[in-house]
Amino acid sequence: MTLAAGVAVSEGISAATGLSSDLKWPNDVFAGRRKLAGILAEAADGVVVLGYGINVTPASHPPELGDRATSLESELGRAIDRHDVLVETLAALARRYDDLLNGQFDAILDAWRSRAPSAVGAHVKWSQAETPHSGVTAGIDNRGALLVRVGDRVERVVSGELTWL
Prior knowledge:
Elements: H1 2-17, E1 22-24, E2 28-31, E3 34-44, E4 47-54, H2 72-76, H3 82-101, H4 105-114, E5 120-128, E6 131-140, E7 146-150, E8 153-157, E9 162-164
Antiparallel strand pairs: 1-2, 2-3, 3-4, 5-6, 5-9, 6-7, 7-8
Helix pairs in contact: 1-3, 1-4
């Protein structure tokens, strides 16, 4: 669900503004090296609640995060119609949700991979069971787990706090 939502938010932003964005596993949308949007999915009792936030104006994030965060207006140098962004992202979310319901997982994964250059070849670190690990990203598998090469083996990362180095 989170990967499908990331693809949809990125597609919606592009449709509404013309801005191309990248995805960073598992739930961030980036413009260059700065975060533009985020997705959060929480599951409970067989229901998934999905939320997303897009920085539209420079005031969307504190100034001290300017080196790590950006906004649509900052990237494009012009005012953005929030209504268009909302409509396009909701339409894209509906299309990608239909893909999930119709079992078109490959279409979602292919779209995600095409928008996620950091999923291959990026240095990362994370902790599992309080043990630190580090390695180089090697893509995502067919279930959406991040693959990380650690020495001569490949680890599947499915959750946790991941730091991109």
